[in-house]
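ENTRY TYPE: paired fold submission
RECORD: A
CONTENT: sequence, then structure tokens
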Amino acid sequence: MKRTGILLTLLASTTLVLVVACGGKHEAPPVQRETAVVPTPPPAPGQVVSRETVTTTREAVAPSEMARGVTESARALTVQQPPPPLRQEAMTMPPSSAYVWLPGYWAWNSGWQWVPGHWAQPPYGAIAWVPGQWMPQGQEWVWRPGHWQQDTADALNPTDAVGYYNRGYGRLKEDDLTGAIADFTQAIALNPADAHSYYGRGDARAKKGDLTGAIADFTRVITHYPKWTGPYYDRGLARLNQGDKTGAIADFTQVITLNSKDAHAYYYRGLARFEQGDKTRAIADFTQVITLNSKDADAYYNRAAIRAAQGDKAQAIEDFQTAADLYQQQGKTSRYRDTLEQIKALR
């Protein structure tokens, strides 16, 4: 889960730094979960400093069909009968953001048998899965095996929505945002109900700075998956970066309603509430972050900054000291030194 900084200044007689975070997804479709952020200037008094990268993925075991699917795709077969039309499959929610969808296909085993699609983790260096196809060759049908795509040069079937989605995911991983948006858009044109492609395009648009477009795409995902925390979280981040504090608070509150132990949602809601001028509730949210993760130095720092702005120097110093100790333990030297300066300024 990635956290980076955005610019913020405390409305207080003493200029302080309020550490904020922009960060990762929750149970996302297989796209690289980087969210919209504002470029971070060098740390300075009265400005936000960047937050270190922390990643979390939900552990999952790939479906048992994976081995069969990969084995089958590696075989070159020739049959006399044409395969049935491909089945329309609904992609399930992925195990984590590192997985790519491998669509189902018809396999020959003394007759046609359908092998269901499934999520799989790409091997090192691969960016997408190019599905296998049965190709006509005279009076016969030859299986062209699927393979993991190592770059974006592989030709795609122009009617293959999943292929465009997977290539879009690969391009997103490579930070080819324009190419990713084009592929996700083509996947949507081929399958307008594909919420995963809307999500991928929303990610790419957010990274590119098109927050309005990203919000629209995340909203489309929510209409399909109203109990999925990810799109609410990402829409909240986009709204917060866009200055829509009320909308951001509503989205982070929905994440918390669906998952009351999501510390990042409390963190961002605390930030939005602070920007809205609701310091009391902001402190309550950062306190909840600390309850869920007592090692979160940034949450202590933020709570200290707000308490200092309210004139509560004693508790502000206590929180700053805890933050400084944690920064030192975590090897964040510049943050540690800055926090000591905040303590010195309050004494």
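RECORD: B
CONTENT: sequence, then structure tokens
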Amino acid sequence: MKTTKQILFLTFLMSGLGCAPQNEQTPLRSTIETSSAPAPNIPAQKPAQTQNDEQWQQDQDQDQDQDQDQDHDQSQTQPEVPQQQNQPEAQAPQNHELKNEPQSIQEQAVMLDHKYFTVKYLIEQRLPKYVRYELKGKNLRQRRATRSNVFRLDSMLIDLKIQPVLPQDYFGSGYDRGHLAPSADFLWDQTANNETFVMSNIAPQSARLNTGSWMELEDKVRRWACAEEKLIVIAGPIIDPELSKMRSGVSIPKRFFKIVLDDTPPRKAVGFIFNNHNDSLNVLERIKLPAESVAKLIHEDFVKEFPIEDQHRFKENPKLDDWREESCFKKSNFSSH
């Protein structure tokens, strides 16, 4: 039988061995609390700031998606329409109705006077908003120049500290360098013809449009000019919101317009709209519009081109039969060369 002293001694030994100081356990507890691993057989729990972290992650994912969309748009080299809430591509209006009229965009533009034509140039889109020039029958009947085919940058933009579009910016893009003031309208003077190849007079056009109905209208307008003697021609892209871009940053229009004004009495006006990517309406009668309707579509007022007494012509539904036309090159007009 153990004595009372022995019992007390054993009790003292056991209590000494089983009681560790509190400050020796603290480091181990701290390591476990900062560990990100979940405890065994316990579902992983989000930390206390879960709601803020989740919102932050959603914002990051959204920003990343937007960056990818922007990169995709800027690297477009094929005629592809930007996705915009699954809206179908705007079709050429029929029965004189304008559909899906684009909202007015905030534009930064400069006017460029190239002597033979005037350009309103959009800095952000790197496109001409429109090109305006006079077309006279007496000039068209004098063929004194050849098509130069030498595209060049616009030095006027350099003088204005604006980065110009280069001819090679279109290489590999899948688009033609489409003239707004066509070369064939300026074959009466070599300097004038050379000037039409400045890149501020150029916009991305599908080959189907550039060599199809757009060229057909250019030829028709020249025949009108040779009969009516003096026309005012205004042409350009329609700047819809969120256009795709080529690698060079040049915006790719979905549609183009042309307004033709007969500046000899009796005055008349007509407007046209063409699809860039899906143009199958090559019959001019089906795509003509009142000139005022087209001007409103691009948020410009061209009615001042006419005297006040003739400005109502802008609102009239045009009749192409009212436009006289004739060949600019009758036998008596051909030169020996």
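NOTES ON RECORD B: The two ends are 142 Å apart (CA to CA). DSSP finds nine helices and nine strands in the chain.
STATUS: closed
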